[in-house]
Design goal:
The protein is mostly helical. The chain has a domain at about 1-60. Helix content is about 60%, strand content about 0%. It has two helices and no strands. The protein has helices at about 1-30, 35-60. The protein starts with a helix and ends in a 29-residue tail after the last helix. The model has no long low-confidence stretch (mean pLDDT about 80).
Length: about 90
C-alpha cells in the first residue's frame, strides 16, 4: 500500500512540475506550440519512470543483519568444480 501512495505522490509532484515547465517553454517560444507539447510529454514519461524508481527505493525492505552472509562464511559460497576431461 505504501508503494502506491509514494508513487502517486511523486507522480503528482512530477505532473505539476511538467505543467509549469511546459508553460515556461510556451512563454519563451510563443509561436512553437509543438515545442511545449514535446517537452511536456517527454517530462511526463520521464517522471512516470522516476516516480516508480523513487517509490520502490523508498519502500524497499531492510535486510536484517543476520541474513547477510559474513565475508568469511565459506558455506554461503559455492565452488564449481571443473569436469574432468576424458582422454
Amino acid at each position: 500500500m505504501a508503494l502506491i501512495v509514494y508513487y502517486v505522490v511523486f507522480m503528482v509532484i512530477g505532473d505539476v512540475a511538467d505543467y509549469f515547465i511546459g508553460l515556461v517553454v510556451e512563454h519563451v517560444w510563443p509561436g512553437a506550440t509543438q515545442a511545449s507539447l514535446i517537452v511536456f510529454l517527454t517530462l511526463y514519461f520521464l517522471f512516470l519512470w522516476v516516480s516508480w524508481v523513487l517509490a520502490v527505493w523508498m519502500t524497499k525492505p531492510e535486510v536484517p543483519a543476520r541474513a547477510r552472509p559474513e565475508p568469511h562464511d565459506v558455506s554461503m559460497m559455492r565452488k564449481r568444480s571443473r569436469p574432468q576431461r576424458r582422454r
